[in-house]
Amino acid sequence: MATVSSRPARQLAMVFDLNKCLGCQSCSIACKTLWTDAPGMESMWWNIVNTMPGGGTPRDVFSHGGGYKNGEPVPGTFPPLREFGEAWGFDQEATFASGGKAAFRPLERDGSSPEWGPNWDEDMGGGQYPNSYFFYLQQICANCSKPACLEACPRTGLYRREEDGIILIDEERCHGYRFCAEACPYKRIYFNPGRAVAQKCIACYPRLEAGVAPACVRQCPGRVRHVDYMDNLEGHPYKLVHEWKVALPLRPDFGTEPNVFYVPPLAPPAFNEAGEFDETKPRIPDEYLREMFGPGVERALETIQVEREKSARGEPSELIDILIARDWNDLLGPFTANPAELDRPPRGG
Amino acid sequence: MTAGTLTSVTAERLGDASPQLLAPGGTQWAKVSETTVSLAPTPLDAQPSAYVQTSWAGRPYGALASVGLSAVVAGDALYLRLRWAAAEPRQAISDNDTYADACAVLFPLDGKTAELATMGDERSPVQGWHWRAGTALPFVITATGLGTVSRVPDHPVSVGAAWENGSWSVAFKRGLSEQGVPLTAGASVPLGIAVWSGANSERAGLKAHTPAWLTLTLPK
Ligand code: SF4
Ligand code: SF4
C-alpha cells in the first residue's frame, strides 16, 4: 500500500503573502500558458486565485472531503467539471445581431449559462458594510508531506521526488481512476478526459532543475511568492514559517501537512457605530481565520502588526524586509536564473 | 444455448472463412453456446489503498452476479465474448465524476499457473485483456501483484463492443500464435473474468470477478 512515512531528503516550500496579492491572476495565466494549453486541459487551472471568503474553485472548495482525520483517510468527492468551471464560449452571434448592444454572454459547451467558474464570486467577500472584507487566496498543489493523493492511489500512479519532495503523477502508470482527486482536500487535481489521466501542478520542476523559479513565482507583480528549500535556514520559507512563525499552512485540519504556507491577512479593525475604528473588534472574524490557518493565526497577525509598527517608526525589522522583498531575486531562493539568459531555457519566461 | 454455471469452457471451432466475430452481437455468435459464469465482489480488505478501503466501507460494489462467456476459435484466432446485463450503461467517461463500464479477461502469463487473488506475483505474473467503454482498442496488461498492473505498449489483441437491449456484449480477439499468453490448439489455460459497473463508479480493484480460475480448453 502506498504510504509515505519518511521525509524526502529535501523539501521545496513556498510562502504566499496574502497581504500583497492584487488578485491579478498573472500567476494563473503564466501557469495556463506554460502547462495547460493543450486539448483536454481547457478547464484546468493548476494555479488559481480566489476571493475569500467565497466559494472558491471548485465550488465550495473546502467541503469535498479528503485528507486525514486522526490519521485515517477521509472519504472525498471529485466535483464535476461545471463546479470547477468549463472553458466557456461566448454568445458572439447574439452580440453581433444586437449591433453590439447586448453584452457577451458566456456559454457552457451545451449552450446553457454557467452557474459557476474559477473565482466565480470575485471580490464579493464577506461582512457587512462598512465592515466588509475580503482577501485573495492563491492555490497550487502544496506538495504535502502527507500527500493524501499519493496515498489514495491503489497503483502507485503518483510519486514523490527525493530531491525536493515534489509530488508528481506518472502518466504512464495513471489509469484515470481519480481516487487522488477525491482524496486531495484542496481539490488541486484535475482530470484530462481525452487522455483519461489525472493532471496537476508540477511545481515547474523542469524550471527548478535549470535554476529558474516556478512561473507563478517569477511572474507575480505583487512579490507575493517566496520559494526555497525548507532546509535553507537563511531562506524565506524557513524564516517565515519556523523563525517568525508568520506563515501558516492552509486548513491544517486536513492533515496533509502542506508545504505551501500563507502569511494571513491583516485587516484594519472594525468600525463602530460612530464610524470610528474599534481596536477591540477584528474586521475579519477570528474564528474564520482560525479555521483557514489554524491556531497560530492570532500570534502571527500580532507579530506582523508589531513589526509593521516598528518599521513605521523607522526601526529595522528583518520580517518586514523579507516580506517587502525590495530585491526581487530575494524571493526566488536558489532559483534566480533568468530564463532569457540561459543557453537552453526551460519552457516559459 | 445456455448451460448452467460451469468452471470449465471449451472453445468451439467455427469453420467460417471470414469470421465477423468482433461484432459481438452478430449472427455468428448466435450459433455459439454461452456459459454462465458466476461473479463475486473482490474483497475490500485486499484493495491496496487505505483510502479506497475507507471510502468504500459499507458501500456495495461488484454486484453483477454473472456474465455469459462464449469462446470460439476461427481461422487462427481465439475469440472470447462476454455478455452481461447493464441497465444503465456508461459508454464513456463524460465528466470528472463519471466512470466507464469495463471488463477484462485474465490468464497466467505462462498459460499455466499464477495466483488469481493477488493478480500474480513476481515469479508468476498474469496477463489480461482489458476493455473500457469509449475506447476503440483494448489494453493488454501484465501484473505481478495487486496494484502493479502495467499496460503493454504494443499488442495483438483487438476488441468489439456493443450495448443493446440492456446488455453489453464485448468480444476480444487474439491470434493463437501471436505474442502473449500461449494459446495452443488442444491445450487448456486458466481464465479469470472481471466486470466494472461505471454507473456505480467501479474502477481499479472495485469490481465483480471470478474468485477462482475457470479452465478454457481450445479445440484441437
Ligand atoms: S495539495 Fe492535494 S494534490 Fe497536492 S500533494 Fe497535497 S493532497 Fe496531493
Ligand atoms: S500574480 Fe501575484 S499578485 Fe497576481 S494574483 Fe497571482 S499571487 Fe496575486
Note the main attributes of this structure.
heterodimer; A: 349 residues; 11 helices; 16 strands; 22% helix; B: mainly beta; Immunoglobulin-like; 7-stranded mixed beta sheet; 2 helices; binds iron/sulfur cluster
Report on the structure:
The complex is a heterodimer of chains A (about 350) and B (about 220). With about 350 residues, chain A is of the alpha+beta class. Chain A has one domain (about 15-85, about 120-330): Alpha-Beta Plaits, CATH 3.30.70. Chain A has 11 helices and 16 strands. In chain A, strands 12-1-14-13 form a 4-stranded mixed beta sheet. A two-stranded antiparallel sheet of chain A has the order 2-7. Chain A starts with 11 loop residues before the first strand and ends in a 25-residue tail after the last helix. Chain B is mainly β. Helices cover about 5% and strands about 40% of the residues of chain B. Chain B is built from 2 helices and 16 strands. In chain B, the strands form 2 sheets. In chain B, strands 2, 5, 8, 9, 10, 11, 14, 15 and 16 form a 9-stranded mixed beta sheet that branches. In chain B, strands 1, 3, 4, 6, 7, 12 and 13 form a 7-stranded mixed beta sheet that branches. The radius of gyration of chain B is 16 Å and the shape is globular. The interface of A and B includes residues 172 and 176 of A. Bound molecules: iron/sulfur cluster (2 copies). One iron/sulfur cluster binds next to helix 4 of chain A.
Helical amount among residues of chain B, as a percent range?
under 10%
Query: What compounds are bound to the protein?
Result: iron/sulfur cluster
- What pattern of helices and strands is seen along the backbone of chain A? EHEEEHEHEEHEEHEEHHEHEEEEHHH
The CATH class of chain A? Alpha Beta
Q: What does the largest sheet of chain A look like?
A: 4 strands, mixed
Number of domains of chain A: 1
- How would you spell out the order of helices and strands of chain B? EEEHEEHEEEEEEEEEEE
| Principal-axes shape call of chain B | globular
Based on CA atoms alone, the radius of gyration of chain B comes out at 16 Å
